[in-house]
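haha ok so turns out i had the wrong file open the whole time. this is the CORRECT one, sorry everyone. sequence first:
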Amino acid sequence: METITQERFDAVAVLTLNRPERMNALSKPLLQSLDDALTRLADDAKTRVVVLTGAGTKAFSAGADINEQRDFSPTDAYEHMRWGQAIFDRIETFAKPTIAAINGVAFGGGLELALACDLRIVADTARLGLPEITLASFPGWGGTQRLPALIGASRAMRMMLTGDPVSAQWALDAGLANEVANADTLRDQALTLANAIARHAGEALAELKSVVRTGLREGRATGLEAEARGVGRLWGSAAQKEAQAAFFARRKRAAPDAG
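then structure:
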C-alpha cells in the first residue's frame, strides 16, 4: 500500500498520509514518499496549491513512528531529527502554498508537519499536541521553533511542557488554526480555500511566501527591502499585465455612463 496517495482537483493537489492502521504515523518510508511527491509537484506547472491530510477519520498523524526509534543511539537520534527537519523546512519554503487539513489527532511530528504548512484547517473533533515531554524528550522536527513563532512563547511553552493536547477551538482562538470545520465537511472546506488561492498567479504566490519568510527570519528592515524587490520582480510580468488589464476593464464596465 502506498504511504502517500495523490489526487488532483484542477490546480490543487491533495496528498494523503496513508497509514490509517498506524494512525498515519510518520515512518521513514512515508516521509521519503512525501518528499518525493513534493519534488514532483514543484515541477508541475498545473499545481498551484497543495493540501496535506490524513487517511481515515481518526488521525491526521499521531506523530513519528516510535518503533523505528527504539534502538537509536544519540547520533542516530540527532541525524533523524536533522533529516526530518530538512523535509519540513522544504514544506515551509515550498514555492506553492500548502494547507494542512487536520482530520483527526495531530500529535508530535504530525503537528510539526502541520506547522510547516502555510495554513491549517482543523476538524472540530481533532486534538492537537506535542507530547514528547511524556517520553522524556521534546519536539525535534521544528516544533520548538515554529509553534512559539505562531502562537507566542507562553502558550507554546505550556503545550510543550505539559504535553497536554488542545482542542480545535483552542487552536483557533490561539492562532494555531486558521479555520475549524465540521469533520464531515473538512475536505470540502480545505478545497474551497485552496481553490480561492489557486486562482491567483503562481509566481505572485511564490514571491509573497518568500518575502514573508524573509521578514520573519531576518527582521522588518530586510523584509521591507525584500517586499519592494519582490513587487519590482513581478511588475510587468505577463500575469501582472493580464490581471491589471482585467482590473481596468471591470472598472470601466462599472463606471456610470456620462450624461
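The CA atoms of residues 132 and 243 lie 48 Å apart.
again sry for the mixup
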